[in-house]
Amino acid sequence: MLAYVRLEVRRTLRDVGFVIGGIAMPVMMYLLFTNLGESDGSWRTASMVGMAAYGAVGSALNTGGAVAEDRATGWLRQLRVTPMSPRAVVTGRALTGAVTVLPAIVAVLAAGGLVNGVRLALWQWAAVTLLLWLGSLPFTLLGLGNGYRLTGPATGVVNMVCNLGLAVIGGLWFPIALFPHWLRTLSAYTPTRRFAQLGTAVAEGHGPALGAIIVLTMWLLAFGSYAVLSYRRRAGTI
Predict the structure, then answer these.
(1) For residues 70 and 93, is the Cβ–Cβ distance under 8 A?
(2) What sign results for the dihedral spanned by CA atoms 55, 58, 61, 67?
(3) How far apart are CA 60 and CA 98, in angstroms?
(4) Which of 72, 65, 37, 33 is nearest to 49 (CA)?
(5) pLDDT in tens, 88-133
(6) Phi, psi at residue 209, to the nearest 5°?
(7) Residue 123, Cβ neighbours under 10 Å: how many?
(8) Domain count, the chain
């Protein structure tokens, strides 16, 4: 499975579309949102974490698009004749997504520190990076579920809708305080808001809230089950 993961990571990082959409776009959006008009240091820090989370979600979901392409080219059919079980195939793809989200996270954090002057302690930079990296796994599994279940074009559309919808409702683009009460209530149950809270809590100098960890874990189990079931459903048609 490790050889499979190495192969998929190399394929992903060589994709120009992934580099532009998954890494460059979140950085540009972060710099744009925080340098139009006046913005204080707290907003630049919060937006940095939010945009790093947004980039991680987009990169994680991108794994599903690659799966849909593999189905079209027959690559998944070849995997079916290997000793790898469905769970191992899904796990390998999830590990690939976990590796490829790191460049997006690091790029946005670097923009915050080097361009926008965000100042955190060394342990905070490391903890934010680690928590966003680990917390992106549910979104990788969501993308995989879509990629195994849907056609290539449909996967791209659904992943884009998931990315934009979850980013906006989860408060990755705009402060939650600007939302109406009903939307703030809904946002509390989204995986993206809880995902971003892992990083913002550390940036503010304290550990992640237990509620954020519990909600994100529930989404991890739900999306993981969805990915495995989608793969098994497609097994007979790959």
Answers:
(1) no
(2) negative
(3) 7
(4) 33
(5) 766 777 777 778 888 899 999 999 999 998 999 999 999 999 999 9
(6) -70, 145
(7) 9
(8) 1
- Note whether 52 and 104 are within 8 A (CB): yes
Alpha helical stretches, state H, the chain: 2-13, 16-18, 25-35, 41-73, 75-80, 86-100, 102-114, 122-135, 137-149, 152-169, 181-187, 191-203, 210-234
Kindly give the interhelix angle for 2-13 and 41-73, rounded to the nearest 10 degrees: 110
Per-residue model confidence as pLDDT tens digits over 213-224: 999 999 999 998
Entry pTM: 0.85
Contact (Cβ atoms closer than 8 angstroms) between residue 81 and residue 44: no
Nearest CA-CA partner of 169 in 57, 60, 29: 57
Q: How far apart are alpha carbons 97 and 223 in whole angstroms?
A: 14
Both tokens of 196, joined, read 């971003």
**146 to each of 95, 128, 226, how far by Cα in Å?**
17, 28, 9
Q: What is the largest CA-CA distance in the chain?
A: 58
User: 200: domain range?
Assistant: 2-234
Residue 23 and residue 107 in contact, taking contact as beta carbons nearer than 8 Å: yes
- Per-10-residue mean pLDDT of the chain, 238 residues long, equals 66 71 88 78 89 92 78 66 67 75 92 92 95 92 88 87 93 88 92 94 91 94 90 64
Rounded to 5°, the CA angle 98-232-74 comes to: 75
User: In the chain, what is the straight-line distance between the N-terminal and C-terminal CA atoms, in Å?
Assistant: 20
